[in-house]
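re: ur question from earlier - yeah i can do the single chain one, its not a big deal. heres the input i used so u can compare w yours
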Amino acid sequence: MEGFFNAIDIWENNYSNNILNYKNTLKSYEEFACTIEFSDKGSVNMCSHWKIVYQGLIWPLATAYLKATRGSNNEDTRKKNLLVLFEFLASFNVIILISAIKNSSENIEEYDKLIEELWSLRVIKKGKSGNNIYDSKTWHRMSFGSWTTLYGNLSKIFKKYEFSTVMNKEFFENLANKKYKKLFNKLKNKERNSDAHSGFEDDIDVSLKLQELERYLDEDIFNILKLYSGLKLYYTTCENKAISPKKTEYKVFSLNGHCDPPMMSKIITDMKLKPETLYLNDSLNNNFLELDCDLIRFNLIPNSKKWGIYIYEGIDTRKNVALYKCYYDDNMLEIPLKTDEDTFLRVSDEFLNQVLRIK
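and the output i got, formated as tokens:
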């Protein structure tokens, strides 16, 4: 029922804000009317799109989707929001796949070669310990194109190597399918064309481009979103207690559905989970995938009481900080870079050896 009442609120807000805008009000009503209905037994039936977003999507994807599809009635704004959603989904998928490799139990003999394949690297010299030092400047500032490049590299790697993933192997193989790399490459070009013509598009051009992007959303992007159906996302706190010799109870943020702010809950598992860490959970076998904390973070939004998912955006060598972007709230997060030997984040030629190490 929660999804039903939220749908009512969305439609009511659209109606109240646009009562004189017949076209958008009618469209909003039609979207609502064909989305939810009552069955003969009195229960609420929802179409697959709404059911997945409200009940089956992890919080960052649900939030990004709702902002892209319900955030505005202005067609130009909706077009831009869809492009933001597409870039966010590409980056999120890449981070999930990289995290899967990091958590693989396999010992890959061609380890350095794998790093070079993933990050399209060029070795520039040898480090003090004999390890390769790479030219990392390409990854000092991320873009839609950067994530698409990584997606293509990951597709090849998952086809070439075998990984013992902690979760359902089929999920990662589906996510790494090269057809999605091709899809995001198309969408990346749509973004570039949109930026190139920014400020010069008339209403008809904007409307046609929006319709095209919405077709991608309904036909292709939602196939990717459905891959996450049944998975859960959690952020662990520092609170936990052993409830048996093998099992531990953890207090976590449950980052699932569209709830804002995220809800606190408790989970029980025999896996040892790190504090203040994001985990993707396969609810069928209760396995947890630790997400790469150097590429994705869960943080309070600056000057706000709201929380956000932040994706690695690059580094600022002048400020000596790593930059993270919250796609659905247009906020940036700056994390000071350390320079000690044990840290992952360094402003040096060894940046990739520290930040982007797979193991």
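The chain is about 45% helix and 20% strand. not sure if urs matches, ping me
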